[in-house]
Design goal:
The chain is an alpha/beta fold. 39% of the residues lie in helices and 16% in strands.
């Protein structure tokens, strides 16, 4: 892949998506500067193990920094030049946002503004940022389209991600900063987060403990394999958003703009019911799960389903890894990493 932007700054480089994206770009010869605060939201050893895979690359630099640290961020930018900034640092998790709201404001709002300011003052060509399928909130019309309003979030996490989209648009309008937001749909795969369903289910089944099946198994998720996410991100990084000549303030399109701003969904475009997902895990592990059926949790949505027409049209890519393949790869990694039989 001939990638025209070679100097890339990735926040959350020790995180699940940040690690995979960093490794892909490093292998393609990009100079990657990564930062991460290595916070203890989940096992720091897992984050450190990801970093150990990146450190041997001569074209990789790492700083332990928090994006909410304004002066720390300024120093990183003052000492380097970046073509593209990819923001993957965020306080993640829908349910945790109910328990610890301030963590989300510090990282996802304060930290995001710090990044926008750094991009504005340092001639960054393209600011790409992770949004989330959670912004669709109370929307029920499927599949979820970037061209429909997302004004009814059902978790603080979702509200912070929607605020990121609004702030990025403002900086595009005021300062001409090219901004692209990516709404990821239920990302899974090797080196994944321990708070995500696949990780939780695999661990519990292997340890013969019950798994919590919310909404009595009637949840639907557009499970998207990590390699598909990374492929989508790398293609979008090299495509600067252009003003939409058809944009009309009388009937505003939320997915595009009169300025250099664009939103994409990156999802598998194929929602899977939770029970089917569990069945595949059981089949790969060769063990049955002990299931504890529970109601829908506060902040959760019953279904997600990505409409990805713009992604296909603009960068010629459609995620397509089936869950059977993705789950098998995750479990293979899990057993190797944890030494489990």
């Amino acid at each position: 892949m001939n990638f025209k932007f070679k100097r890339v700054f990735i926040t959350g480089a020790a995180g699940f998506i940040g690690f995979h994206l960093s490794r892909r770009l490093l292998e393609e010869g990009c100079h990657v500067t990564g930062i991460d605060n290595l916070n203890p939201y989940y096992d720091v050893k897992l984050k450190e193990a990801r970093l150990e895979k990146l450190m041997p690359f001569e074209n990789f630099s790492f700083f332990k920094t928090d994006i909410s640290d304004r002066e720390g961020m300024k120093k990183v930018f003052e000492n380097s030049e970046f073509d593209v900034v990819v923001n993957l640092a965020a306080q993640a998790g829908v349910r945790y946002s109910i328990e610890n709201p301030h963590a989300y404001i510090d990282s996802n709002v304060v930290g995001f503004v710090n990044l926008l300011e750094c991009c504005r003052h340092n001639n960054v060509k393209h600011f790409v940022f992770a949004s989330s399928s959670s912004v669709y909130g109370a929307n029920t019309k499927m599949p979820f389209s970037v061209h429909r309003n997302v004004d009814h979030p059902v978790s603080l996490y979702a509200a912070t991600k929607k605020s990121n989209e609004l702030m990025a648009h403002t900086y595009s309008h005021l300062y001409g900063l090219c901004c692209t937001g990516l709404r990821f749909f239920t990302v899974y795969g090797p080196w994944g987060r321990p708070d995500m369903a696949l990780f939780l289910f695999t661990r519990a089944i292997l340890e013969e403990k019950p798994i919590k099946v919310f909404n009595h198994g009637k949840m639907q998720r557009d499970f998207t394999y990590i390699d598909d996410i990374v492929e989508g991100v790398t293609r979008i990084m090299g495509r600067l958003p252009e003003p939409d000549p058809t944009w009309n303030g009388d009937d505003p399109d939320p997915g595009t703009s009169y300025t250099k701003y664009k939103i994409y969904n990156i999802g598998n475009n194929n929602p899977i019911e939770l029970m089917e997902f569990i069945n595949v895990i059981e089949k790969v592990l060769g063990k049955k799960a002990k299931k504890e059926f529970l109601d829908l949790q506060p902040g959760d949505v019953p279904a997600t389903y990505a409409e990805i027409d713009d992604l296909i049209k603009d960068v010629g890519f459609k995620p397509a890894t089936p869950i059977e393949t993705g789950i098998k790869r995750f479990i293979s990694w899990y057993k190797e990493y944890y030494g489990s039989n």
